[in-house]
């Protein structure tokens, strides 16, 4: 029997098993993302999705293990020894690629065992351990790209894009990451509020002399009917003009104040009966009993 033909046939079988296992495990990860996000539950039962996820995981893992064992059948063992199948990065010819594949298989085997002892671990511990599945899938992608001799540049790119999008969906639906846009939005809003200044004009003091309009024509304008119009909020380059207008006002009718960015509770807010007509607010600290 020609060893080259045997080597070719074994390599073809190993490649078929490997790519089939990768495709099925990718589907398993996709189903896992659906389970995590609660998507399509209105059309597909949760139990159906859950069982399908388990079946795909076991089938993909079985094909991956067979892919690894077939490497030992080829004449000359294709530079792969028994120790290389359980000890990561031990192979001298392809330590990184084979090491990634071994770590991925071992991580998935740990996950299968964790499902069997889920009650002993507790749901929360098992849920944290289950995140190892996405790490294993990322290692599996690295193994295919590095060690896949049948992978063209286009194929490697497709595998990386497909797997990367799946992992990104899982990361984007994580609770911590889901709150990031809200945190960033609040931070940006606070930062913008801190740079804004509120402009108030006491019309009882304002003499309509036009000094403010001369100092800041973009902010203040004295109308033909004698009334003063102005912008109530300014920021950035207009801030200096607002300060200059307040300084030049002879009656000191222009008041500038920053918007609050932090509110501290612990004070009772009341409207005093003797000052409500003037719109003044009185504060009274709660007396401890």
Strand order of the largest sheet: 4-1-5
Mean pLDDT over the residues: 77
Largest sheet: 3 strands, antiparallel
Pattern of helices and strands: HHHHHHHHHEHEEEHEEE
Residues in helices, as a percent range: 55-70%
Topology, number of strands: 7
Radius of gyration, in angstroms, nearest whole number: 34 Å
What's the overall geometry? elongated
State the low-pLDDT regions, or none.
261-289
Strand content: 5-15%
* Structural class assignment: mainly alpha
The number of helical runs is 11
Please, could you describe this protein's structure?
The chain is mostly helical and 289 residues long. The protein has 2 domains: 3-178; 188-262, 2-Layer Sandwich (Alpha-Beta Plaits). It contains 11 helices and 7 strands. It has helices at residues 3-37, 46-70, 95-116, 118-121, 123-130, 132-147, 153-172, 175-178, 180-194, 211-215, 238-248, and strands at 196-201, 220-222, 228-230, 233-235, 254-258, 267-270, 282-285. The chain has a 3-stranded antiparallel sheet with strand order 4-1-5. Strands 2-3 form a two-stranded antiparallel sheet. Strand 2 and strand 3 form a beta hairpin. The longest helix has 35 residues, at 3-37. The N and C termini lie far apart (98 Å). Mean pLDDT is 77; it is low at 261-289.
């Amino acid at each position: 029997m020609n060893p080259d033909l045997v080597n070719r046939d074994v390599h073809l079988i190993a490649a078929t098993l490997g790519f089939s296992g990768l495709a099925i495990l990718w589907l398993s990860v996709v189903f896992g993302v659906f389970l995590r996000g609660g998507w399509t539950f209105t059309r597909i039962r949760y139990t159906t999705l859950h069982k399908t996820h388990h079946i795909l995981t076991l089938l993909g893992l079985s094909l991956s293990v067979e892919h690894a064992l077939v490497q030992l059948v080829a004449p000359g063992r294709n530079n792969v020894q028994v120790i290389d199948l359980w000890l990561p990065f031990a192979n001298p010819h392809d330590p990184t690629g084979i090491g990634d594949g071994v770590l991925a298989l071992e991580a998935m085997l740990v996950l299968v065992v964790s499902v069997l002892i889920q009650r002993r671990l507790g749901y929360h511990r098992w849920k944290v351990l289950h995140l190892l599945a996405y790490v294993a899938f990322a290692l599996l992608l690295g193994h295919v790209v590095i060690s896949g001799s049948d992978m063209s540049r286009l194929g490697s790119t497709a595998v990386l894009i497909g797997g990367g999008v799946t992992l990104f969906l899982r990361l984007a639906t994580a609770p911590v990451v889901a709150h990031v846009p809200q945190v960033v939005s609040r931070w940006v809003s606070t930062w913008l509020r801190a740079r804004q200044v509120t402009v108030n004009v006491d019309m009882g003091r304002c003499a309509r002399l036009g000094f403010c309009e001369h100092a800041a024509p973009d902010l203040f304008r004295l109308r033909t009917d004698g009334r003063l119009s102005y912008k109530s909020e300014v920021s950035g380059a207009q801030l200096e003009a607002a300060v200059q207008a307040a300084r030049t006002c002879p009656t000191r009718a222009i008041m500038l104040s920053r918007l609050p960015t932090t509110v501290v509770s612990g004070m009772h807010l009341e409207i005093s009966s003797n000052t409500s007509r003037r719109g003044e607010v009185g504060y009274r600290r709660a007396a401890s009993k």
